[in-house]
Predict the structure.
Amino acid sequence: MLGMPNDLSLWFCHLNEARHLIDNAGLESQNLQGEFSRLLDWVEYHMVMSRFSHRHWYINVESSKETKNLPPIKGLPSCSHEIIRLFYFMFEIIRKPIDLLYHSDEYENSLVCLENKITKIVPLAAEGESDTMSGLSTVWVATIELFKLAALIYLKRASQNFSGSSPQIVAIVERAHIHLDDLETFDSAFPLLIIGCESRIDEQRFRILEHIERTIKSSRLRSLHGLQDVLQQI
């Protein structure tokens, strides 16, 4: 969910209702495994990413109020959820320059603390996998690393309202492309959007658009078509 219309999207309304059903049924208090666990992770992931969409695409005030009233993300026992939980904190703490706390030491310290937490995440092999680099664990590690790198880029840009060139961000983007090369397909829109926007040289732009095109052929996600259009227009 990258773009948002004038009103809350129907997609977000369905997602919010799913979140309420999970809460009312007390599913998170149960030790669910398999498909149910993945379903809960899926809902939490999209609830977190909806905050990004509302922050950058909402138009009316009611959308903003709705986002602020969303329930906090609850911890789930999975490595993937650690980075998603940090995404949630990141979207919550980033201030705009007009905010009174924007230039405070407290705000600066919170950003440094969050950056350190993101950096220190260790992309362990998925549950049930050995520590050896099997095909699945390679995909898992590359996926978590791409989310980490995208988070670090976004944190640098959004928290400082900074759009200029940065050797640090250039280095992060180069690392991200190395991880993308390890994946045949990768369909998570947020990392692709952030990395794609920061791909400033023609070779990088071609590589990420080629990667998205390859992923589209094996995926039914409509959001990838929108992402492709956005990156082609930059």
